[in-house]
Amino acid sequence: MKSKLLKGILASALLCATLLTGCQSATNQVVIYSNADDEAVTAMKNALDKNGYEGQYIFQTFGTSELGGKLLAEGTNIEADLVTMSSFYLESAQDQNDMFVDLDFDTKSIEEYPNFYTPITSQEGAIIVNTEELKTNQLTAPKSMKDLAKPEYKDMISVTDISSSSTAWLLIQGIVSEYGEEGAKDILKGIYSNAGAHIEESGSGPIKKVRTGEVAIGFGLRHQAVRDKTSGLPIDYIDPTEGNFSLTESVAVVNKKGSDHQKLAMKMAQCIIDHGRKELLETYPNPLYDGETSSSAYKSAYPKVFKEKLTADLLKKHQQLSEECKEK
Fold first, then answer.
1. Closest Cα partner for 303 from 123, 86, 121, 91?
2. HSE (CB half, 13 Å, CA atoms) of 247?
3. Are 256 and 133 in contact (CB under 8 A)?
4. Of 65, 18, 307, which is closest to residue 181 (Cα–Cα)?
């Protein structure tokens, strides 16, 4: 009995020591919060691990809305030291909480960005089609976002839900920009009716259904369709006449009042840009920095920027507009 009791005490002591060691180790690591896709996370981790930072960070991923909510609610009290996130959310969080420090390295970006962040990826929207399914169903390929509301596409299209994926915002920006909010409502009602059960939570959801032939048409990320077509799949992409709107995801360093974590996080941010972009370009091919190039296939026909500044409040406004257009 005493032997069992002694073993139990020793086991408990060992467990406590292990937990304390683990906690101590965790506090010595840079915490990275990200809304990035798996491919981007892998590229960033590879850049860090291959350049001396393996074991010095913890990487946690969130949905865009979830992470955005944390940034706005927690400010500098957030656990993260380094954040990769949709740029408009970073700007909204900075405006509200003044929570990021200026980057201390020269990014050499093609476009100008605020001093506290620099982009890691850029993504554009486009219409995506399965050419075989179009033929099988005797459908003419759409030319515009408005066309997606045509009754002949009933149950044949897939789109994303803006309440869960920012990819859908690329569609809604285009419709609102071209037809105004009231005109956009009529078009969105038709699109959602046509999509039915094919309104997806993930930005990659529509192209997955187009690939399998479950639907003939989707709206999603342009670079994914270009890559599929290049690889020989019966996939094509159409730049909608309303425009190819885009979103960037960027890296920012949380203000930890000059702590060692902040300094290390800054070095990791630079590492991701200096050493991660080559792999990132394989999945997200839009050039962002001096010296980067891409094939002509990745250059959209109608690149556009929304007339209003993209903010968390504007996203919420368009989310409400979207909800009003869904069948109850």
1. 123
2. 29
3. no
4. 307
Nearest to 227 by CA among 152, 295, 306, 176: 295
CB 322 within 8 A of CB 162: yes
pLDDT tens track for 188-220: 999 999 999 999 988 889 999 999 999 999 999
DSSP bridge pairs for 119: 250
Model-level pTM? Answer: 0.82
Cα dihedral 185/187/193/196 (nearest 10): -100
Q: What are 193's two structure tokens? A: 């009716």
User: What percentage of the chain's residues is helix, strand, coil (to nearest 5)?
Assistant: 50, 20, 30
Cα distance between residue 302 and residue 7, in whole Å: 71
Asked whether 271 and 48 are in contact (CB, 8 A), the reply is yes
Residues whose CB is less than 8 angstroms from the CB of residue 97 and which lie 6 or more positions away in sequence, other chains included? 71, 72, 75, 76
